[in-house]
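Predict the assembly for these two chains.
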Amino acid sequence: MDNRNRRLDIALGMGLAAFVLIPWYRIEVGFLSFGWLADFPADPAVAPGILHIIGGRWWLSSAALLMAVCAGARFVSDPMRRGALLAWSGALGVFFLSLQGLAVGFSGWTWAISETMFGTLVDGQPSMGAGAVLACVAFVLIFSFGLAERGVMKGDAFIVASIAMLVFLVAIFVFYPVGSMLIGALQDFDGSFNPDGFIRNIQDPSIWSLGCVAGGERCGVAWRTLWLAIMTAGGSTIMGLAFALVATRTRFPFKKGLRLLTVLPIITPPFVIGLALTLLFGRAGVVTQSLSSLFGIEPGRWLYGLTGIWIAQVLSFTPISFLVLIGVVEGVSPSMEEASQTLRADRWRTFWRVSLPLMKPGLANAFLIGFIESMADFGNPLVLGGSHGVLSTEIFFAVVGSQNDPSRAAVLAIILLCFTLTAFLAQRFWLSGKNFATVTGKGDSGIHISLPRPLSIGVHAMVIPWMMFTLVIYGMIVFGGFVKTWGLDNSLTLDHYVRAFSLEFANGTIAWTGVAWNSFWTTMEIALISAPLTAAVGLLTAYLIVRQKFAGRNVFEFALMMSFAIPGTVIGISYIMAFNLPPLEMTGSALILIACFVFRNMPVGVRGGVAAMSQLDKSLDEASLTLGATSFRTIRKVILPLLRPAITAALVYSFVRAITSISAVIFLVSAEYNMATAYIVGLVENGEYGVAIAYSSMLIVVMIAIIAGFQLLVGERRLRRENRVSGIAAAAPTTAIGQEKTA
Amino acid sequence: MTTSGSVVFKNIRKQFGNFTAIHDLSFTIEPGQLVTLLGPSGCGKTTTLRMLAGLEHPTSGRILIGGKDVTMLPANERDVSMVFQSYALFPHMNSLDNVAYGLESSGMRKKDARERAEESLKLVGLAGMGGRLPAELSGGQQQRVAVARALVLEPQVLLLDEPLSNLDARLRRQVRTEIRELQQRLGFTAVYVTHDQEEALAVSDRIVIMKDGDIAQQGSPRDLYEAPASAFIADFMGEANVVPCDVITVGGQDATIRIGAFEHRVPSRNARLGPAKLAVRPNAITLEPATGAAFPGQILHSAYLGAHVEYEVETSNGKLFVVDPAVERPLTPATEVAVGFKGRGIAIING
């Protein structure tokens, strides 16, 4: 019982502190500046919850009362009754806190129904601050401890608390924003119900027009996006398959180089390919210019539109598709092909009738991933879209542009979300269990037959030019930073790097005079904070999913994975809509960026963790438990050390993703917290291609250095047998990354 | 080992979804006893053990260890420890750290924990092997580290989940003797799960045979072998031929049974008059090459196994499986034989 009282006392202490010791509401200058200490507790702006209750904000008293009930429940002796009491008051506490936050806004009631029930409020309330948040956390903990005392999850308080906290966080940072966005679509500026904007936008011919089929008019943006996504998915799947076949079924000499390709999409900021294409084929591009001068071909604008976006996307996503398909192509058991040959089928027939059908589910999977990627892609359309936007950019312009129509943005976001979720659900349900990849425990001897000759020539003819093209593209990225002005003045210069990254030494200190430093250091700081959080949350979730059985586990996992199919633009717009007003106000802070990264990148940590943890014998955990260790100690001492490769992968990945992502970030950055990618996009919009390219290539170099550094750090492994485990564990996250990278 | 606790299961029921693994299980284990849970796979014996360890919680019912109600306690707050089938040694820690792990978890200083762990390793005959990683130990050594790791905590009850199943046959016999010797020397309560009846007979004070989530029979090894309560027990505890018979007289120690025209005297053990079943051990049957005997049979198959010969014999009361030590006189298939019973190895099953 000691143990139970101790942990309960800690939670109750937190609850007490939340009401008495720290400011209840949000402080404009930030809680961590601690400027509030001077005026505490008398000034109403920084007063603790208890003073607000006395001062007239009576609706907070229900929460305070429930906290008092929890404190009283501590002295109930019957464990079952005590558990029930704690669980109920904890749950009610969370409920009441959320309810009052939603119901009472800046200037009084937010809902008409509460106004009629309780009368008009003289004074509203600001957004929740440290006190309110701490009170919520305390209630969640008390709720979990209550359940644990009633024997839920075998009485393991740590597990119950982890699940409760994760559900709580996912609800706040994934479902609440998306929900707010859906509601936002139906609201007027003042928050009253008004479906006019929604109805007007959902019927907008510029979204749904099918004019292009009839000939003449342009098609609506929804159809264009869908068409682009299908073309990109098809293109990248075919290219990916060609690459995978070359890598496994031919004697191609540069197979190592092919593998290297798979790293590229991870380290390339999403708009960089588009940028490089402009340098080649834009109106001032090298190719365009030389064709013009050599053959007199008029420089066209063909790149700016769906064609250009399509090329950029196929270039960007082919490596991902390759990563998915190489596993599939290798997974086809050689003995199947050998069996087919002994049944007198020639190589051509074997490939078409045996090998390819066995790869079908994998191909469908690669197609759907490409589809989701293309839908979610924001960087390339932004750089290349011109006036022919796609959904993700239209959403952006609906908010930041002159139209400033949040309702339109919400409607577009809903349409985009419907497309990606449909693809995600198809991938999840239709393809699950349809995997023919025949990897068994038995040593599957035999060798893959080589490809039929015409096919072999075909795939080489696709792969070799594409590889060269990729090389040229990346060459452009490096080279582009050193050229004065593209197309006009092709002399070499270091000006762009100097402008971006210049340093001055004055008075023995370094002055960061380059224009890029500000956003660069912000990016590093945010990425460094969010990477360990992402890895921790992701791996904890993986542990819960793999090791614990609880009601709703499948729903839990599904909801988490689904959050990854939500395009970044949709997340961005929904975060703005949800976190701009009370009860939670975070826009313009670093916190919102960190939250965004953690919950967008977490599923990769989950995938990797699940894959790695499934390799660990469950009896290891159980042994630790029966030896008297708590599950927290078990995780720390037994599971984490054995999961080191997965942890590294999750850390590196989330770090790199925080640096390269743009789609959600561009909505969330502020003057104070500007991220590198958003800054580069700004440069591109101003036409400062040189600096943009210089900055991008610098980012790529930094990321390569970081990945290589991590690889070296992981180093030394003590156990002989771990190599086997880690081999799988290390391989798994890369696959997961490939499957989950949505820009 | 200072404490050895009793174990009480009261009306335990365990459901996994719609499947009921344990129906209504009640039993008591006295302090200092080694009790084996024996049964075919899927009978619920491992579930029972895991509930005792706290790795599963019962759907209803109560579990007491050393007189204290632990039904709702998590595994790490129970005074039991467990030896796993796979040993579950932490692969990233050496043997000494593995053994010290539990002590450190309960808050002992690192130095003291290591000293105690060293002693415990010595107890299982692995003095000086503390620096080795599990992967650098043989199967038998790993098994002993697992035992040392569980014993060093001086639990009220030690749980062993098929601890020998990963060892080869020769080693199995040796380790089984070691475990029994250690248990008797230190006097701790132990619950042992196995599906191997020979192992159960060799180590146990008492055996609980489980079938489909219920107790089929419990008692001392000798009781179970010699007086099985059902055909299932008889067959499970060493093979047995089950033959229908009539009990015609019961008197004192003995009873007379009749099969067809054949009569035989066997130990009575609560036998009732009337139709019953007879469990006959394969080595309690004699075969003589002859025809026209009271209980005639014909050899169907024979297999020469060095120390004895196994026969399958067709009789009017069904096929009998016979183990015959007379290797010098092999009987070929189709030979007509006279079937007889010995005085021991035969039990009446009532009902």
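The interface with chain A takes residues 53-57, 71-78, 80-82, 84-86, 88-92, 101-102, 105-106, 133-136, 149-150, 153, 159 of chain B (CB under 8 Å). Helices of chain B lie at 45-53, 95-105, 110-123, 139-151, 169-186, 197-203, 221-226, 231-236.
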